[in-house]
Amino acid sequence: MTDLLLAPDVTALVSQYLRSRSELTDMVGQRVYTVIPNNPTWPLVRLTQFDSIDYTVAWLDGAVVQVDAFGGGIDMASDIGRTARALLHEMYGTHDEGVVTGVRTSGWRYQPDATFDPAKPCYLFTAVIAAHPLPTIGS
To answer: What end-to-end distance do the CA atoms of the chain give, in Å?
Structure first.
């Protein structure tokens, strides 16, 4: 097997990072998911990577991630979403899952999730996270 350098799993990187920040965990605990559990406890954050910006090397990723902030009410959902957005802008640097070299967010909006009955208050935005794997010894 060759030593193929792969891009990091950005949703894992982001979810681990958000779970490490008390500003967010004080509101949602460890409930930062990529898939909402069958019987969720609210409030929570859901991360969904739905695209990636292609760079000239395969190990550099520009992951496009949607962040859904679900609250017990509209105000709580807004607080959670604004906190998550601010924290993402602070995540530059080295993490266990990779190195973040850029963060851009856009598209802040309120969109209740009607897949739940009653619809759950949700603020969402997108983030583009530029990341690469950790340096290896000898590189």
So the answer is: 18
Tens of pLDDT, residues 93-129: 999 999 999 999 999 999 999 998 899 999 999 999 9
67 contacts 81 by C-beta, under 8 angstroms: yes
Q: Which residue has tokens 């619809």?
A: 119
pTM of full prediction above 0.90? yes
Taking CA atoms, 97 is separated from 13, 17, 54, 55, in Å, by 5, 10, 20, 19
Q: β-strands 122-132, 61-70: how paired? A: antiparallel
- C-alpha to C-alpha distance for 77 and 104, rounded to whole angstroms: 21
pLDDT in tens, 47-69: 999 998 877 788 888 999 999 99
Beta pairing class for 93-95 and 32-33: unpaired
Identify whether the C-beta of residue 88 lies closer than 8 Å to the C-beta of residue 103: yes
Residue 105 in 3-state DSSP?
strand
